[in-house]
Design brief:
The protein is built from 3 helices and no strands. By secondary structure, it is mainly alpha-helical. It has one domain. The mean pLDDT is about 85. Keywords: Coiled coil. This is Transposase IS3/IS911 family protein.
């Protein structure tokens, strides 16, 4: 810890030790970080679904707008 403290320009090794103890355990690749990436994947799927629905609604809107403009027989 002493070498790390020197490299970081921190006063003492004890400061680095305290940082390590206070660091969330998820920083090691578990818990909250994993939950965050799950949320991102879920949101990306939702965005894709909403874009697809938006495209369908735009096409339907264009279709019905064209129907309104056509003269009736």
């Amino acid at each position: 810890m002493g070498k790390t403290a020197d490299l970081l320009g921190v006063g003492s090794a004890e400061t680095v030790r305290q940082w390590v103890r206070k660091a969330p355990s998820s920083a090691a690749g578990g818990g909250a970080a994993n939950a965050g990436s799950e949320e991102i994947r879920r949101l990306k799927r939702e965005v894709a679904e909403l874009k697809r629905a938006n495209g369908i609604l735009k096409a339907a809107s264009a279709f019905f707008a064209a129907e309104i403009d056509r003269p009736h027989r």
